[in-house]
Specification:
Elements: H1 3-14, H2 20-27, H3 31-43, E1 63-71, H4 76-87, E2 92-97, E3 104-110, H5 113-122, E4 130-137
Antiparallel strand pairs: 1-3, 1-4, 2-3
Helix pairs in contact: 2-3
Amino acid sequence: MDASDIKILDILQADGRITTSDLAERLRLSPTATGERLRRLTRDRVITGYGARLDPALLGLGLLVFVEVSLDKTTSDAFDLFARAVRATPEILECHMVAGGFDYLVKARVADMGAYRRLLGHVLVGLPGVRETRTYAVMEEVKRDGPLPLRGARAG
C-alpha cells in the first residue's frame, strides 16, 4: 500500500458512497487508476465491505450492553462451541476473546433492560460453556463507529 491507497481508505471511511470519479478527483488520479486501486484493495480484503450506519434508538434498539463472559473450560473445543453459538445470535454485535480476568467481551444491543434480561436469561447464560457473566449497561455513547486511525498505517 502506498500513500494514495491510505488516502482512498481514509476517504471511504468518511464517505463509503463516494463515486469513483469523485474519489479520483480528490486523489488527483484517473478514474481508471482509482478503480483499479479499489478492486485491488477489495481483492486483498483491506476493504471488507460497505454498509449504512443506522440510528439504533430510532429502530427500537436503545440499550447497549457489554458483557464479560467466563467459560467453565478454556479448551479449544469450548472456544469453538461458544464462538459458533455467538455467531448465530443476532443481538450480539461483537464478541472478542480477551486476555485477563474473563474469556470474552460481548457487545449486544436490545430495546431496553427487559429485553436484555430476556437475552441474558434465555440466550447468554445458555451459550455453550458459560460459567459466569458480568454486565455493563451503557449510559452514554461518547464515540461510536470511529474510523481506523490510518495515520499510523503502513504505506509503502
